[in-house]
Design brief:
Number of helices of chain B: 1
Strand order of the largest sheet of chain B: 1-2-4-3
Helix content of chain B: 10-25%
Strand content of chain A: 35-45%
Radius of gyration of chain B: 12 Å
Distance between the termini of chain B: 42 Å
Strand order of the largest sheet of chain A: 7-6-10-11-12-9-8-24
Distance between the termini of chain A: 72 Å
Order of helices and strands of chain A: HEEEEHEEEEEHEEEEEEEEEEEEEEHE
Number of helices of chain A: 4
Largest interface: A-B, 46 and 24 residues
Shape of chain B: globular
Largest sheet of chain A: 8 strands, antiparallel
Structural class of chain A: alpha+beta
Radius of gyration of chain A: 24 Å
Helix content of chain A: 10-25%
Largest sheet of chain B: 4 strands, mixed
Number of strands of chain B: 5
Oligomer: heterodimer
């Protein structure tokens, strides 16, 4: 058939057959709250649903001057589906149907989403049953304990209180290809329980670093090193930096402090947090996205630790790229009875 | 009507406690403290838009900055 006829046939088949078939899958995918802005929140793997692969329509050459409809099936069972049968009937055999399998975007991972030793601040990590979050920093229990631990969020290292003592923590996190036990770097040891019936102050957990794992204690790649613990009072306007699994090294500005009644959506429900820090990104970038949870936030100039990133949204901020929320680091250290290593 | 002033941190903290009660009928997503000029003010976050009449511009003379921040999620 002529090129224009093939194009018309493609449009007709799409509108009558493929669009009604593919629409529910696309709607489900867009509404999945785990998938936002090409970033993925640190969440239980069981909750992540991928869209079902579907049919693709196009036009292909048939000989030197003729064309026919091209149908590409991303699942084998679709080759014999009623939809493909209808397309064959409409096309009157002027159709080339092939199975092509699942197509994937080829996106190079960031350096910190790969397996990296020694482990350091800002790497992808997480409980083996969680997608991926960020390794915040290294800490030790108060009272002269020598055991080295990693600090991140409860929802990154403890899967919202579903973890049991000794569970594997992987680097990189599961979503970035981390496998248990090949990439085990630490074992879950303690978290502050997330509660629905009362006010939360922190979303925090720690895991003991395995003896065999080498550690770079203080480096924040691209910035320098963590210089220590920041002041208790963090004024609005303070410039801050974080290194996260998804957005890398980003700079921001504190827009509010002592923020109460912050309601955050979790897998277990909506949780209220008090005494939080709010941050907006500098320039035209958000300060954080899904997967940055657990990042250590430091003052931009003094490089002193001030917060533990745990939540964010897509709306607000002077650049319109959304706001980030963090627990004051002193609250985190006190609640877990730990100090920076 | 109380005039808006350059508020101290303690005044802003006191106003925050009151604002949490006064504004409890609104779709609040957070009430905190921010900088307003040389002093402090309240930052009132809303999950969705409300009528202008529902949102006061000050609380006991402490200025209020309101912002729609949408839904906040763990990251």
């Amino acid at each position: 058939m002529e090129l224009d006829s093939a194009r018309d046939l493609k449009r007709q088949c799409y509108e009558a057959i493929v669009a009604p078939f593919a629409a529910p899958t696309q709607r489900e995918f867009r509404s999945a709250r785990n998938v936002r802005s090409f970033s993925l929140a640190a969440d239980s793997l069981a909750k992540i649903q991928e869209p079902l692969p579907s049919l693709a329509l196009g036009v292909a050459r048939k000989g030197r001057k003729q064309y026919h409809l091209a149908v590409r099936c991303q699942r084998r069972e679709l080759m014999e589906s009623p939809q493909v049968a209808q397309i064959r009937k409409r096309a009157k055999k002027e159709v080339d149907v092939r199975f092509v399998g699942r197509l994937r975007k080829w996106l190079a991972p960031r350096w910190n989403q790969k397996r990296l030793r020694p482990i350091q601040i800002g790497l992808s990590c997480g409980h083996y049953n969680v997608t991926a979050g960020t390794l915040g920093c290294f800490v030790r229990a108060r009272g002269g304990e020598k055991t080295l631990m990693i600090l991140s969020n409860n929802h990154v290292l403890a899967d919202e209180d579903k973890a049991t003592l000794g569970d594997a923590i992987l680097q990189p996190g599961n979503f970035d290809g981390g496998k248990n036990a090949r990439d085990l770097v630490a074992r879950f040891s303690k978290s502050i329980r997330l509660v629905q019936s009362a006010v939360n102050l922190v979303d925090a957990a720690i895991g003991e670093v395995e003896d065999r794992i080498k550690v770079n204690l203080h480096t924040i790649k691209g910035l320098n090193t963590v210089a220590g613990l920041g002041p208790n009072f963090l004024d609005a306007g303070t410039e801050v930096v974080k290194l996260g699994r998804t957005t890398g090294l980003t700079r921001g500005r504190v827009t509010a402090f002592e923020l109460d009644n912050v309601v955050v959506r979790y897998g277990i429900g909506d949780l209220r947090f008090d005494n939080q820090i709010e941050i907006e990104g500098k320039g035209q970038k958000p300060f954080s996205e899904g997967g940055d949870s657990g990042s250590l936030i430091v003052e931009a100039n003094a490089r002193l630790a001030v917060g533990l990133l745990f939540a964010g949204g897509d709306v607000g901020g002077s650049n319109g790229k959304g706001l980030t929320y963090a627990n004051p680091i002193q609250s985190v250290l006190d609640e877990l009875s730990i100090d920076l290593a | 009507m109380t005039a808006i002033k350059v508020a101290t941190l303690e005044e802003a903290r006191a106003a925050k406690q009151k604002a949490a009660q006064v504004l409890s009928g609104l779709p609040l997503a957070g009430i905190g403290i921010t900088r307003v000029g040389e002093g402090f003010g309240l930052k009132v976050n809303l999950s969705k838009r409300v009528c202008v009449e529902q949102m006061p511009t000050q609380m006991d003379g402490v200025p209020i900055i309101a912002e729609v921040v949408g839904e906040i999620r763990k990251q």
